[in-house]
């Protein structure tokens, strides 16, 4: 089983929120600054959810879809 993703990227934010890619980048920059991380540092799902108020379990589930098993 692959490991769970704990980092979130702009394309993930765009897909989760329905925002444009540029708006997703701005939101990630804001969340990174709120978490006290330097520019370019990876942002965890927990940091992002704390900033946006989204449920961490729902975001994690959306980023880590269930595996398909071969028949």
% residues in beta strands: 5-15%
In one word, what is the shape?
A: globular
Strands of the biggest beta sheet: in what spatial order?
1-2
- Taking all Cα atoms into account, the compactness measure Rg is 13 Å
* Class computed from helices, strands and strand pairing: mainly alpha
Overall mean confidence score, pLDDT: 92
Count, helices: 4
Helix content: 40-55%
Q: Sheet with the most strands?
A: 2 strands, antiparallel
What does this structure look like?
With 71 residues, this protein is mainly α. It has one domain. Helices cover 54% and strands 6% of the residues. The protein has four helices and two strands. It has helices at 10-17, 21-34, 45-52, 56-63; strands spanning 7-8, 43-44. The longest helix has 14 residues, at 21-34.
Which helices and strands, and how do they pair?
Elements: E1 7-8, H1 10-17, H2 21-34, E2 43-44, H3 45-52, H4 56-63
Antiparallel strand pairs: 1-2
List keywords for this structure.
71 residues, mainly alpha, two-stranded antiparallel ribbon, 6% strand, globular
Brief synopsis:
The protein has helices spanning 10-17, 21-34, 45-52, 56-63, and strands at residues 7-8, 43-44.
């Amino acid at each position: 089983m692959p490991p769970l993703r704990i980092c979130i990227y702009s394309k993930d934010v765009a897909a989760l929120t329905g925002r444009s890619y540029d708006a997703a980048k701005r939101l990630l920059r804001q969340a990174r600054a709120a978490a006290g991380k330097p520019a370019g540092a990876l942002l965890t799902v927990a940091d992002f959810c704390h900033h946006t108020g989204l449920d961490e379990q729902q975001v994690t589930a959306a980023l880590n879809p269930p595996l398909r098993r071969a028949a």
